[in-house]
Write a structure and sequence with these properties.
By secondary structure, the chain is mostly helical. The chain has 13 helices and no strands.
């Protein structure tokens, strides 16, 4: 994670200098934003929220028709989401999306906003709306207008959200389709194994689930390490169910 305290000190020094040398400039908003990002990574959500709101105020004043305002709405939405305020996060993500659709239609930025909105809608239990929004994001991400490389991780994220929606409505078959599509595209995408394993357990295909988790635990990518605890938990569940079947 790096030296967050050191970064915070440097960003605050930069803010002080900018406030002295250019007291009415967008660079100050950048400083507020940078401080907010560090505070968020440190777990100080209230402090981060304050900095992001200061950045938003300056950007609305100095650059009222810019994508940087959408960035501020996103950052505020991320914090509200982390604080459990899903309705507040949805409002901010939607404001960001409106700006991006106006200034950069059919762009990666629009797709990212749609993905974030879809995730929040799912959290709110609004599954049909979530699916529609995620399908729209995938349509943009697979458009020939966009380069595949920067879109790949967001496309996989949308597919994993759709897979989760399938499990929410007890459709493990379709969840498995999404999981396999994800892993075909990126065999080191941790969420794909998590989704596949849980779908197989819903099918009561415990040996297949066990094999899935064992394969996942044998991989070493950073995405896999982030899911290691879930993989071990899923593997233990599959082992217990297999043991019951053998009794």
């Amino acid at each position: 994670k790096g030296d967050l305290d050191g970064a915070l000190e440097q960003f605050r020094l930069a803010l002080e200098m900018r406030q002295k040398l250019a007291p009415n400039s967008l660079s100050i908003a950048t400083s507020f934003n940078n401080i907010g990002l560090v505070l968020k990574n440190k777990g100080d959500l209230d402090g981060a929220l304050e900095q992001f709101r200061l950045a938003l105020e300056m950007r609305q004043k100095l650059a009222p028709n810019s994508l940087s305002i959408a960035t501020s709405f996103h950052n505020i939405g991320f914090v509200l989401n982390d604080k459990g305020d899903l309705d507040g996060a949805l409002e901010k993500y939607t404001l960001a999306l409106e700006i991006e659709k106006r200034l950069a239609p059919h762009s990666l930025a629009v797709a990212k906003s749609l993905r974030n909105i879809g995730s929040v809608l799912r959290g709110l239990g609004r599954r049909r709306e979530a699916k529609d929004v995620l399908d729209e994001a995938i349509s943009i991400l697979t458009s020939p207008r966009l380069s595949l490389m920067p879109c790949q991780s967001w496309l996989l994220g949308c597919q994993s959200e759709l897979g989760e929606l399938c499990l929410d409505r007890d459709d493990p078959c379709q969840a498995l389709v999404h999981a396999r599509s994800i892993l075909d595209a990126d065999p080191d995408y941790g969420k794909g194994y998590d989704l596949k394993g849980r779908a197989l357990i819903r099918f009561r295909r415990f040996q297949a689930a066990l094999d899935c988790y064992a394969e996942a635990l044998g991989r070493t990518g950073s995405s896999m390490r982030n899911f290691a605890a879930l993989f071990r938990e899923g593997k233990e569940m599959a082992e217990r169910e297999l043991k019951k079947q053998g009794e």
